[in-house]
Amino acid sequence: MTRWLAFVLVLAFGCSRLGTDDDASTGLSLDELSAFNAGAPGALGVITLAEAAEAMFAFGGTIDPAKSDVQNAQLVQTHTQSNLVACGNVSLSGNTVTAKFGAPPGCHLTSGGTISGTIAIAITKSGTNVNISLMFTDVVINTQTLSGGVTFVTTDGAGFSITGSFTVNGTKFAPGITLTGSAGAVAIDGSLSITGTSTTSLTFTAAQWKSGDCYPAAGALSIDKSAVSVAVRFSASTPTTGAVEVTVGKKTSAQTLPTYGNCGATDAG
Known about the structure:
The protein has 269 residues and is α+β, with helices and mostly antiparallel strands. The protein is built from 4 helices and 16 strands. Residues 1-21 have low confidence and may be disordered.
């Protein structure tokens, strides 16, 4: 009886493992599509965090490790005020800067986005490290909700390693990434995990992002979920369309990252 049942199952499902049949509309198996869908919000999460931080200080242009924590806080206050378009309230108390952007839709940023809620930054120095701790309260940036607390650590004012945890649209991230600013762009490298019922791990490699853009315009993202690994490559069209190239083994297909606001509204074709 057992052998007969096994034979019937082979006839019904062939050699494919249940749940891994190809989805004709995406070119990926169900497991591969599940991994992509689980990891794709990670790209949006990192961009949301980077955009919020960039509203307060410029990567590679604001923090000066040679200055004191109070002097750096003054630089952050000046940058934040200059980044707002006739809106918001930015106060300074010692080494802490508090920016209140009001209720949604809040304030317009010079990058073209919008931000509401409150961001508080405390700056401390420890040896050669400058620690920039950010706390997000009721923050909505470019229609994305952001909460939690993270610390950006730098020794040169250009490269920032990130610790702590943050939540975007209800998805919680534990970052281990580095953001490095140069020539008007920010390079995203390193790993982070999406926590929940299961853990999805993401690794960015030389992802190039510009403040105000929806997504990176170059570089790659690796998504690992339940022993399935998916490679995502960004291109010059990704910031406007959300279109990416996804590779699993020798198989490559076109996919689309989550749309939000006016991002990804253009047909990816």
